[in-house]
Amino acid sequence: QKSTGSSKVPEPATKKKQKKTKGDPKTAQEEESHDCGCCFPLLFALLQLALGASVTVLGFLMAGISSSLLVRDTPYWAGITVCVASLVGFLMLCISYQPDEKTCAQFTAKLMYFLLSALALVACVLAVAFAAHCYLQVTKFTCQTIFESCQCKLDTTDPLGRTFVYQYADGCDSLTSALSLYLLLQMVLNLIAALACLAACFVMWKHRYQVFYVGIRFYPLAAPEGPQQKV
């Protein structure tokens, strides 16, 4: 008996880890959720950075057409907001993962990324609305070149109608055609950026709250097992 007791071989460490993982479903679930959740911030952050940079560059190009364009018609502010949200997403990837957000830095990064993505979503929706309104106006313009400016009217028969003056424009034809093209691109890019920010907010919310409370389930009392006594 002593010889058989002393000849026991210790189990390897890999088997112990496997048994620990199989025996502890909470640890396995946390590792699985970490593996599934660590990829989406990188994809959404890259997409937001590309779209935000495109919107910002296009907004500054629109501002270079004429100095009279309003800030709402050159939505570089929406692109900058999307870029800031993407940078926070990259910062979140640099923080070491802890289950259930046990570190203050991890919780703060996730909260900031969610709030900035929501703010970028609102900014992109506003940019789409402003660009669509301006595009409808540009399609109805009747323009003429006066000195170094381009004066456009929506209704030439109305003497009290509003006149849009664009200073330092090369020409009315080139101004209206370039402005129409830029506004269409702004609508498309901001719409895609808004969808990307919405998807990022949804996935962040789902990753944080995967289990939803649906109420308490009442189970009926089970009948006692065994033979019932006859009365």
Keywords:
231 residues; mainly alpha; 3-stranded antiparallel beta sheet; 3 strands; 6% strand; disordered N terminus; CD20-like; membrane
Model description:
This protein has 231 residues and is mainly α. The chain has a domain at 38-132 and 171-211. 63% of the residues lie in helices and 6% in strands. The chain has 7 helices and 3 strands; from the N terminus they run H-H-H-H-H-H-E-E-E-H. The chain has helices at 2-6, 13-23, 25-37, 40-63, 76-94, 104-139, 172-208, and strands at 142-146, 149-153, 163-167. It has a 3-stranded antiparallel β-sheet, with helices on one face. Helix 4 (40-63) runs antiparallel to helix 7 and helix 6 packs antiparallel against helix 7 (172-208). The radius of gyration is 31 Å and the shape is elongated. It starts with a helix and ends in a 23-residue tail after the last helix. The model is unreliable at 1-9, 13-38 and 209-219 (pLDDT under 50). Its main location: membrane. Residues 1-28 are annotated as: Disordered.
